[in-house]
Amino acid sequence: MTGATATISANGGSAIQLQQLCRHYRMGETLIRAVDGVSLSVRAGEFVALLGSSGSGKSSVLNLIAGLDRPTAGSVVVHGRDLAKMSREELAHYRLHTVGMVFQSFNLIPSMTVAENVELPMRFAEVDRGKRDGLAREALTRVGLQARMHHRPSELSGGEQQRAALARALINRPQLLLADEPTGNLDSHTGTEIMNMLRDFNRQLGMTVVMVTHERALAERYAQRMIFLADGKLVGDEANPAASGMDLPRVEAGRQ
Amino acid sequence: MKLVDLTELAVRNLRESILRNSLTTVGISVGVASLVAMLSLGIGLQQLASRRLMKSGLFDTVVVTSRRDLRNFGREENATAPPPGESKILDETARQEIERLPNVLEAYPDIRFPTTLVYDDKTHLTMVAGLPASAKSNDAFETLQGQFFSSDTAHEAVIQKVFAEELLGRTRKPGLDETNVRELAGPLLGKELTMRYAQRESSAAPPGPMKDAASPDEGDTGAAYSVVPRELTLKIVGVADLDPESMRGPTRARVFLPLTLAESLHIMLPTDLREVSRGAGDQPVYSSVNVRVKDPAQIRAIEDAIKKMGFNTFSILDATRSLQQFFAVLDLFLGIFGSLALAVASIGIVNTLVMAILERRREIGIMKAIGASDGDVQKLFFAEAGAMGILGGIAGVALGWAIGQAINLGTNVYLKRQALPPEHFWMVPMWLVGAAIVFAFVVSLAAGLYPARRAARLDPVQALRYE
After folding, report:
1. What is the ipTM of this complex?
2. How far is A256 from chain B (nearest CA, A)?
3. Does B359 touch chain A (CB under 8 A)?
4. String of DSSP letters for chain A
């Protein structure tokens, strides 16, 4: 506890600070402690993996960092601002401009084309119509999907859908990329593609990446740091210097 | 979110479940159509009534009589007026003075006199009246057979249906009193009618003693007149289907002459007897003058002005006022009944949007996760409700208009069968078109209030958990 506080105060470049974070649900008579007193700090530009079995509370922590959910107790401070103290309006603004999210099930809107899906956050951000086209094209080019921008998500493969979701997450230039099991619905080849992209964003764009996964191997390959959760509690926090290297993926894949 | 984007997304979402949203929109349009139909019926009836009344000449006419006319004495509550004997004479000077008042279209004397007419060697006694050229637009002459006077001095006559029957020697059967005017007009139009009348003629030399007996304060009392019998041949140009017993101001006679012709004949009128002592000059004296007013709203002011001049006035103004009130209440009730269907339709909107929330739960969750605020989601559902409202409103106005046209057509076919002139019962004024669409929009927004709020408060974590 004191150690954690010391870490936070010692690290001026911290992007995310969780302090005694709790999220409890009531389900009938039973109280479910999805997140139960988690304290940790993520530095700006770090690639962190949240690991744990299902029900360990890793997704709940991610939702709290994303500002989609509010803590029962404790605080989530992102870039110096406490999300627990924000209004609903401020939280929406935070999600729009500071956070980009990708999900296991891609969560593209099926009635819209890929380009329209990517453009959607810019509509909420009230970006001019004229600018939106160019920016959407640029983001889709970055993920290699410019040829399929006028297709609907249902016409795309899983990997392509996740690339579109990545483009959408990037479109408002957030500093934080939160990924909830981004490769969970993909085969290993396309999963690798997506993970490489995540790492590129982390390195080239300097984005802080927090990824939730239950695959330790994946985390070891890409994350600079692995945080282990069980029953809503933090049970481990390991640095992973192996992933800091540049060309590990092929070597890692060979070992698998 | 910007309005353009909002509208675009709303329309896109509406198109996604096109059947359900179209049905809801049809519901709104039926509601709006019933409202438009009801209100335009009310408005149409009101306009029909006031058009009829305006044409009848009752509501834009002020009848001016002299206070010297004892038949009217005591009817006016004006106790401060001088006694009848000292009141002003309603003569040509007074008529011109009235005609110069603002908002007065014309002031014409009411010339009517009983006289005998000869047709086909038979003598008939009836009431003859002069008609101004403006009377042509009077609805009493709408069903006129033949035509109106060719000029204001033509030796022509328009006769009334009942008189036409008399001339032709037909008698009405009690049960069957609907004689066809056309039938009567056939044998009469173009025929000649001889009118015998008494002409007033000034005597050149007044006898001396009479001068002393007459009012000493008048300078022109020197003139006297004699009464000379005359005859005038008139051509029957029209047969009118109007009822002489009705309250139609200028038409209470059975034979009509052009007004200027009637005036030029210097016919002995009942007033001449009353004013025998003073009216012997060459200025005609009238028993009453009809004043036509530009706008019925001005009637009161004009009446007051004429009263100030020292005459009695009469108009049927209050009747219009209660009529207006009746139509206001009628419109209100028609509007309420019309709105009921729209109220039902607005429940349809609530239902559709609540369904849409359930269906698009996940989509709402996604939008919130990528940064949509509560306000964005709320506005989106509002926009969808509003778009359905506007579309329904436009379709409803069109539908209401079509129903109105159909009913107009139907009633006119019916009226034609009854040998009546066509009428437009149904009036959709431009303001009603605008108001109906705006009203549909506002009602839809109100209906969208609850669903939009519900969508906005949706918990994104919960919404995204559902597959």
Report:
1. 0.88
2. 32
3. no
4. -HHHHHHHHH-TTEEEEEEEEEEEEEETTEEEEEEEEEEEEEETT-EEEEE--TTSSHHHHHHHHHTSS--SEEEEEETTEEGGGS-HHHHHHHHHHTEEEE-TT----TTS-HHHHHHHHHHHTT--HHHHHHHHHHHHHHTT-GGGTTS-GGGS-HHHHHHHHHHHHHTT--SEEEEESTTTTS-HHHHHHHHHHHHHHHHHS--EEEEEES-HHHHHHH-SEEEEEETTEEEEEEE-GGGGSSSHHHHHHHH-
